[in-house]
Specification:
The chain is built from 3 helices and 6 strands, in the order βββαβββαα. It is an alpha+beta fold. A hairpin with a 2-residue loop joins strand 1 and strand 2.
Length: about 160
Amino acid sequence: MSITSLKAVPENMKTSIIRVHSYRDKNLQGTFYNLFYGEEIAFGSLTELLLRIEDMMDEMDYPQASVQSRRFDAHCKRAEKVNITAASLAKPDWKAIATFKLKVLFRQGASWQGKLTWAEGKTEVAFRSALEMIKLMDSALPQFESSADSTKLSG
């Protein structure tokens, strides 16, 4: 039975676990887990993470989007379940530098609203947009000096 045939999404599918393994020059890489996929999925960028989570929410139809996504091409994009390959699965030796629990409660105004918990900081904060969620994650992650910034300072 598919999740779309259910009247309600099980509570344990409403939360995703995000593990950040690398954060350099504002580019994060890591894994995320949701019971919907049943496996930890690797992501190579913030964009990839956000689009995979959005596709998952579209597939589950939870939380329901209040507006239809606009696109440059005329064809509506259908939600696609992540193609899980060996390359996209987490490696057991990866150590997380930060772990977040993400619970998106609403998708209104073409954005997300919900709660983000930073596990290491033992802090939960409500966010009002995906951008605010990204800024919260950034504030919890270790800030490394980029190579471009270090040459500006030394030059």
